[in-house]
Amino acid sequence: MAQTTPTPVVVITGASSGIGAETALAFARRGAGVVLAARRADRLAALVRDCQGVGGVAIGVTTDVAEADQVQALVAAAVEQFGRIDVMVNNAGYGQFGRVHELSDEDMRRIFDVNFFGVFYGCKAAAPVMIRQRSGHIFNISSIIGKRGSPFHGAYCATKFAVAGLTDSMRVELAHWGVRVTLVCPALTETQFSANVRDGEPRSESKYLTRAAKMPARKVALKIVEAVGKRRPQIVFTAGGKFLVAVNALWPSAADRIMKYYHDDLLGAIQRTNETS
Ligand SMILES: NC(=O)c1ccc[n+]([C@@H]2O[C@H](COP(=O)([O-])OP(=O)(O)OC[C@H]3O[C@@H](n4cnc5c(N)ncnc54)[C@H](OP(=O)(O)O)[C@@H]3O)[C@@H](O)[C@H]2O)c1
Fold it and tell me: For a pocket test of ligand 1, which of 111, 153, 191 has the largest count of ligand atoms closer than 8 A to its C-beta?
């Protein structure tokens, strides 16, 4: 165990890139102990150095969040190193392109294994530690389209809705022990996410995907850091994101009409991609 425990002690999945990496750096700048998890060990090693360089204490634990035993081992490594866990950020995830009726069962199961079960395993491993401590804060990363389904991303949306439901349930359950749980719903964010969407999202041909403003990942990171210890049921990003969520709650058919623009843009992009290939 470390001589002086840095605070807070933060475990972050999907830390090798994007929102996870920025969140790690944001905590490290405040002197936190950060436990970084992802599959790419080389990326984690580089980020460990970067976090140490800005004042944090960092370790990397190569982890596939789709494997329950690996997530348990990640949490055990954090407790072994620092003696406690103050913040768990269940962030690892990827996108899947395609209409729902055209997806294979395997595509759907694979994305649930990572985006939903990865979050579930993270919560299940961290909650007993936090209950013992009578303190802690879990952040589960969903999406704006985990609040309103979007065409061609049904598999991804389903995983993020599942994360939202699980998070709402846990928030009330864990409040009994003083543990906080927050759902984080980013809008489009500048990361490697689009490049990693499976099965040919027609990015370069889509007006929406090429022109839409993207938030910096650091903005998501800073909101998470600021929310630690606070009673924040959810963080929904951007005015457009808040508007879509509100319209969908009050008037779903109007939200359908908004989504129709996106659908038609993507359909055109698919046709242009097919013509040029
Ligand atoms: N970017 C956006 O527009 C946006 C919007 C809303 C929500 N989000 C959500 O934000 C989260 C972070 O995404 P990002 O935008 O930062 O994308 P990103 O740059 O592609 O980062 C994704 C991270 O997840 C990790 N990961 C993927 N599969 C994993 C697995 N099986 N086990 C462990 N780690 C895994 C990746 O690391 P390895 O490949 O090294 O394992 C990587 O560190 C995701 O949950 C995403 O759904 C993103």
Answer: 191
Q: Label residue 209 by pLDDT band (50, 70, 90).
A: confident
- Confidence bin at 274 (pLDDT 50/70/90): confident
Spell out the domains of the chain, with CATH numbers in brackets: 9-276 (3.40.50.720)
List the Cα angle 32/88/58 in 5-degree steps: 35
Report the 10 Å Cβ neighbour count for 203: 15
Can you tell me the distance from the alpha carbon of 143 to that of 159, in angstroms, rounded to the nearest whole number?
Answer: 10
Using the mean position of ligand 1's atoms as its centre, give its distance from the Cα of residue 193 in Å. 6
Considering 94, 156, 208, 261, which one is annotated as catalytic? Answer: 156
Span 15-31, average pLDDT? 98
Q: Is 156 a catalytic residue?
A: yes
Tell me, what amino acid is at 41?
Answer: A
Tell me: cis bond preceding 128? Omega within 30 of 0 counts.
no
Among residues of the chain, what percentage have pLDDT more than 70?
Answer: 99
Whose Cα sits closest to atom 29 in ligand 1? 92
Distance (Å) from CA 137 to ligand 1 centroid: 20
Task: Please give the pLDDT value at position 207.
Answer: 87
Closest ligand 1 atom number to CA of residue 95: 47
Contact between 150 and 262 (Cβ < 8 Å): yes
Beta strands in the chain (DSSP E): 9-13, 33-38, 57-62, 87-90, 136-141, 179-185, 189-190, 215-216, 234-236
pLDDT in tens, 64-79: 999 999 999 999 999 9
For residue 11, how far is its CA from the centre of ligand 1 (angstroms)?
Answer: 15
% of the chain at pLDDT higher than 90: 90
Atom of ligand 1 nearest to the CA of 21: 43
